[in-house]
Amino acid sequence: MGAEETFGADHRDVERLRATLRAQAERVARELRSEGYAGRVVTLKIRFADFSTYTRAHTGEPTQDGLRIFEEAAALLGRVRLIQAVRLIGLSVSGLGPAGREANPPLRPRSRAA
């Protein structure tokens, strides 16, 4: 599941890119929750003015939380050298599974017999 935006004019404004990612993360999180999914892989996509495309992904614990999706995408954005203006930015969440199901559930403390 994902979202992307092509800007009317190419630009280099990092705060605008972050704000766009924040809105996209919330939109994708709402869609994940409405469908009952959580995803493990957050992918950032950037298309530059010359139409070259940059994609990077981060794999973590399953989530459907918009803030967490944004933070992972923003961390990926922080590693990009903006040597050109940006034409498009987007993010997607993949590696989907049912929400609430953990791959490695936390260990529960054993009860001691009295």
In short:
By secondary structure, this protein is an alpha+beta fold.
Strand order of the largest sheet: 1-4-2-3
> What's the number of helices?
2
In terms of per-residue confidence, which ranges show pLDDT below 50 for 5 or more consecutive residues? 102-108
Run of helices and strands: EHEEHE
Instruction: Supply the number of structural domains.
Output: 1
Q: How does the helix and strand content classify structurally?
A: alpha+beta
Task: Report strand %.
Answer: 35-45%
Mean pLDDT figure: 91
Report the major sheet: 4 strands, antiparallel
Explain what you see.
The protein is of the alpha+beta class and 114 residues long. It has one domain (2-98): Dna Ligase, domain 1. The chain has helices at residues 14-35, 66-77, and strands at residues 2-11, 37-48, 53-63, 86-98. The protein has a four-stranded antiparallel sheet with strand order 1-4-2-3, with helices on one face. Strand 2 and strand 3 (53-63) form a beta hairpin. The longest helix has 22 residues, at 14-35. The protein is elongated and about 40 Å long. The termini are far apart.
Topology overview:
Blueprint: E1 2-11, H1 14-35, E2 37-48, E3 53-63, H2 66-77, E4 86-98
Antiparallel strand pairs: 1-4, 2-3, 2-4
Helix pairs in contact: 1-2
Task: List key phrases describing it.
2 helices, four-stranded antiparallel beta sheet, elongated, alpha+beta, 4 strands, Dna Ligase, domain 1, 114 residues
